[in-house]
């Protein structure tokens, strides 16, 4: 059992889990999935197609006839991590196909690793399959290789990411995701809902709604209606959240920009249709910093919105990410961010130190911040965020919380999450006795009897 560390990178997906056992002679492909949950969904879609064609999937390089590395290009440090993973796959296996965000820059990859078999960009599923077919021809057995109804999942069976759109229309100066993944492309509402229904039917207890900009869902298709059940479903985040909430699973919303109509989601949370949880990337609080970032938000109005959200839904959990050390950030601007955090009292907070990313417009801004100042500001920011988290969790001691069980270790200790906790990036609730008969995915009521800076401990109550 480990407590939740304070420095988890907030752009990372949970570790991919693969449990396939190949049949004798079955062609096998390895998969290494890096980066965010959106990339993890891309990996799931690729593997689902491969499974349908008769391939077995390996969680590592051993026994694989080729390896797909799904890369991240969000930060220069993430790019370096992707290059390292490609190099390791080449060393251990030798036959490597690269896809994902970094694949949008093929020369960047082949300049370092010229022996890769192929390079494709993000969500280019057909090109990845073509590369796999060339490297390892399929050999399906129609009597054995049956595609499971829910496809291949890289997360535990009881929760799943549900991607509702691709791309982003924002032009934040520090980000190159729109250049790599393109402009907003929303899925039809009925397609999202059908996938959600299949997942719930397959035993998924929690749907984690993701996109690059969840609030903008449907804008590109003018919030079009599409047939669903006995009526129609509109491609709008409020309608989608309401319809998802009718399926009986936990629904958790990620990457929600604080547009004014987000307030329409809060009553759905107060009514229990979706979890009282909003993941909103505020990034900063000082208006001049936000202007240099080209962010679509105003910190003062955001504080008013937070107050209004809590009035409607007092139990709401607010998670956000921030950037410290952005070019031109003065000590006064940073202090404004700390003061804003004091007032906002966010429940869950992640923080990046600013990094240049090749191709980002922020690289050309003046007054870049020295590394030691960025580190000092990150330390001070996280110290304040940790103190807020510790005080908020202390108030939960003695309360009853519904939790979902994620895993049970060999000592019988159950690692769980409350409604306030997303997988991997937030805290945990641990149950260290009376866990006989519990299984991952179970929903149980727990009385909290201990709290730390990020995690809770408790006992099962009927």
Automatic annotation (TrEMBL):
EC number: 2.8.4.4
Cofactor note as given: Binds 2 [4Fe-4S] clusters. One cluster is coordinated with 3 cysteines and an exchangeable S-adenosyl-L-methionine.
Residues annotated to bind [4Fe-4S] cluster 2: 168, 172, 175
Substrates-to-products reaction catalysed: L-aspartate(89)-[ribosomal protein uS12]-hydrogen + (sulfur carrier)-SH + AH2 + 2 S-adenosyl-L-methionine = 3-methylsulfanyl-L-aspartate(89)-[ribosomal protein uS12]-hydrogen + (sulfur carrier)-H + 5'-deoxyadenosine + L-methionine + A + S-adenosyl-L-homocysteine + 2 H(+)
Positions with biased composition (Basic and acidic residues): 8-20
UniProt keyword annotation of Magnesium present: no
Ranges where the MTTase N-terminal domain occurs: 27-137
Region feature (Disordered): 1-29
Alphabetical UniProt keywords: 4Fe-4S, Cytoplasm, Iron, Iron-sulfur, Metal-binding, Ribonucleoprotein, Ribosomal protein, S-adenosyl-L-methionine, Transferase
GO biological process per UniProt: tRNA modification
Protein name: Ribosomal protein uS12 methylthiotransferase RimO
Annotated organism of origin: Qingshengfaniella alkalisoli
Lineage of producing organism: Bacteria, Pseudomonadati, Pseudomonadota, Alphaproteobacteria, Rhodobacterales
Gene it is expressed from: rimO
